[in-house]
Amino acid sequence: MSRWYGPARGPVACVLGPGPWEGFGAGLGALGYRTIRPSTEAEAALSEAGVTEEATLVGHGPGAVEAVILAARRPEMVRRLVLIAPEGFGAAPPPSPWAHRLGRLPLVGPHLTARLSPPAGPLCDEEHRQVAAAGVPVVALWLGEAASLRGPGLLAQWNRTAKQEVLHDLGPDALAAEPGRLVSALRDVLREDWH
Predict the structure, then answer these.
(1) pTM above 0.70, yes or no
(2) Sheet strand arrangement including 34-37
(3) Class for domain 3-89+124-191, per CATH?
């Protein structure tokens, strides 16, 4: 079953990807957003919930891929697209903290890290171009080491109007550890009326 955060009325934000979303959802609620965390595919969950207005899609990690694909397929449903530490740029996500520690083991560390590291993700270039052509506003927050990967440059090529912010001091666990800082970084963007 889908989970809602925030007030009973207000603009809708749909959060996609690995959580926990409670702190982030509460932060969006403080900004007046009704936030849904779908338990099924986002488009179906919004329809089942009776949402008829445009929604802000917020994709985190692999959830950014789902958000971009939905925005490309159904741009009329999307008020804006927010990507947090997004995947979908063909690069492997940065290794987890435990994989980084394993990599320091003498002799076997580099081998273990290579075997346990996640593979390169999908490349959503065509979907990003479709989102840009449809005029859907996009903002991306790049966190920690991921900001040094090729994603920001590719997004700038695929969608020249996308707003991007690099938060070097936040790591991949920021959604759980510091949701307030993420909401704060998005506060002004979410209040803008880009339409």
Answers:
(1) yes
(2) 3-5, 34-37, 12-16, 55-60, 78-84, 138-143, 163-167
(3) alpha beta
